[in-house]
């Protein structure tokens, strides 16, 4: 019984010693920093776009091609960008990636359908580009579409940089798809 009382006394003394008095005069920032929790409490997270985005295009061309596009943000696929402010707080922006569902018909008959996303273009750039790039647009190029094929254009950009890649997607009347890398913007001085 004396041993039990002695053990309880020792445990009480040990716990009394670790009562947090050493933190009594520390500010919250120092305490969080010492426990490696400062970053998680000072990080502000922002989503871009904040709400889901869906743009539906249904176009019938005079050549008989009908193009249906459903361009939308992917709600569970983000590219992160972290900026540290002067006060050591972090601002993280999570940019939602985009994709487009595609259906092409000619004279009412479905000739091809699929998904336009980064995976379709993975052979046209290195993996580092695709880790940081987001699809900006997908549109029908009326000027370059003909009786034999319809042309779509798409653009991918590494956010907060001037690094981009543009592509044309040619779909012929049999549903065959050909992808070409293009440069839509000319660099003039």
Q: How does this model look, in words?
A:
- The chain is of the alpha+beta class.
- The protein has 4 helices and 9 strands, in the order αααβββββαββββ.
- The chain has helices spanning 2-17, 28-34, 38-42, 127-132; strands spanning 44-48, 54-60, 65-84, 90-106, 109-116, 133-140, 149-158, 164-172, 177-182.
- The strands form 2 sheets. Strands 1, 2, 3, 4 and 5 form a 5-stranded mixed β-sheet that branches.
- The mean pLDDT is 83.
Key structural traits:
alpha+beta, 4-stranded antiparallel β-sheet, elongated
Care to count the β-strands?
A: 9
What is the typical, i.e. mean, pLDDT?
83
Please tell me how large the radius of gyration is.
Answer: 28 Å
Helix vs. strand class: alpha+beta
Pattern of helices and strands: HHHEEEEEHEEEE
How large is the share of residues in beta strands? over 45%
Measured distance between first and last alpha carbons? 92 Å
Please describe the biggest sheet, giving its number of strands, its sense, and whether it closes into a barrel: 5 strands, mixed
What proportion of the residues is helical, as a percent range?
10-25%
Number of helices: 4
User: Could you list the spans in which at least 5 consecutive residues all have pLDDT below 50?
Assistant: none
Tell me which oligomeric state these chains represent: single chain
Shape: elongated
